[in-house]
Amino acid sequence: MKNYQNKAGLILAASIPIFVLPARISEGQWKDPVNLLGSEVVIFLMSLTCWHCIVAIQKNLNLALWQKIALSLLCCCALSNIFFFTFNPIFKDFPFRTATNPLFVRILMLSSRGVLMSIILIPGAYYVQKDLEARTAQKEKQKLAMQKVQIQNRLLENAVLERTRALHQSLVSVQNSQKELEHQLYIQSRLLASFNHDIKGPFKFAVTVSEKIAYLAAAKEDSATIQRYADELSKSLKNMLVLIKNNLDFVKLPVKQHLETAENIILRDLIEDKASVFEGSILTNKNILVIKVDPTTIVQTNKNLLGIIVHNLIDNANKYTIEGSIKIHSTTTDDFTLLTISNPGIEISSQIVAWINMKTNTDNTITPSDLTEIQGIGLLLVKEIAGILNIGLHMYSDPEGIHVALRIPTPGENS
């Protein structure tokens, strides 16, 4: 903007000596070209100085418009006199036909030249100043418009970012909900499989006893023997009824409630409750169940899910033991209770033992179908539910038989 003002001043300052040049040539001043050229340069410098003074007055003085014009006019008159009396001894830049006039008259004549210059310079300076102000205002307006656009762009970017973040959070929430739903469906299927599996053993025993009663009745055997079998059948059916009712009530609950429900459990009561379901089956296989668990031992976990584990371990131990001793014992520390279920049983594949002892099922050499064929669904349920409850599971064998150990949290353990 300053360059624009300077260029305008140069043009107007140069136009004044050019404007008066024809009149000076007509007066015969061309006879002394050095003087003519020098005086033209002096007039140009005088006009340029007047221009800058007028511009300075417009910019720097807080006056009314007429006051600025009057002061600019005085500056032009004063500078006309100053430049004449300074440079006239060298270059005669005025047609001084009346050189003998008094000083006062010469000052008036020089001031009239300043007035003539101001007629060109003052309007030009004011026009350039107004144009400069208009350009500055336009640029400021454009700058404000650009800033407004930038602000709007930033707001739009922030809005897009917020929408994207909200969409991402919604997507993550949906994915988490889907994973949770899949996990709940998986657990629910395991619970139903456990329910189906748990009632098979007692039902088979009930069928066997009922057939035995029918046979004895047909053979007209001792009524005392029939009564004993009938009592066993009745007891077995009552236990199955309780088992079915508990399992059905448990399956009806939301899966999430299954996992969040942890309580203090008297371990021996839970074991005896589950063992009573298999009392008839154990007698049928001529086995003995020995429970060496302190009645005061308390663990903290989900009672129903732990009951499924104990149920399946007792069922498996009894199923693969004939005329043997099934032992259940526990040891307790400050942090956990180690519950071990042992039976003489048949030898188990080392692959299955390794699979059971893994924290996760990463070994593809053993699949659930392989495990079902060898050991039924019981061990599969035990492993999966133990993982859900964060219960440590370990299987090992020695000359005395097969042992499955459960590391169950006690109240206060930071699991």
Question: What does this entry show, briefly?
Answer:
The chain has 415 residues and is an alpha+beta fold. It contains 13 helices and seven strands. 69% of the residues lie in helices and 11% in strands.
Fold and architecture overview:
This protein is an alpha+beta fold and 415 residues long. The protein folds into two domains: 2-151, no CATH class; 261-415, Heat Shock Protein 90 (2-Layer Sandwich). Helix content is 69%, strand content 11%. The protein has helices at 2-26, 33-60, 65-87, 103-198, 200-218, 223-252, 255-260, 267-277, 279-284, 303-319, 350-357, 368-375, 378-388; strands spanning 263-266, 288-292, 298-301, 325-332, 336-343, 392-398, 401-409. The strands form two sheets. It has a five-stranded mixed sheet. Strands 1-3 form a two-stranded antiparallel ribbon. Helix 2 packs antiparallel against helix 3. It is rod-shaped. Mean pLDDT is 79; it is low at 361-365. Its EC number is 2.7.13.3. InterPro entries: BphY/WalK/GraS-like, HATPase_C_sf, HATPase_dom, His_kinase_dom, HisK_dim/P_sf. It catalyses: ATP + protein L-histidine = ADP + protein N-phospho-L-histidine. Keywords: Kinase, Membrane, Transferase, Transmembrane, Transmembrane helix. The chain crosses the membrane at residues 36-57, 69-91, 103-128.
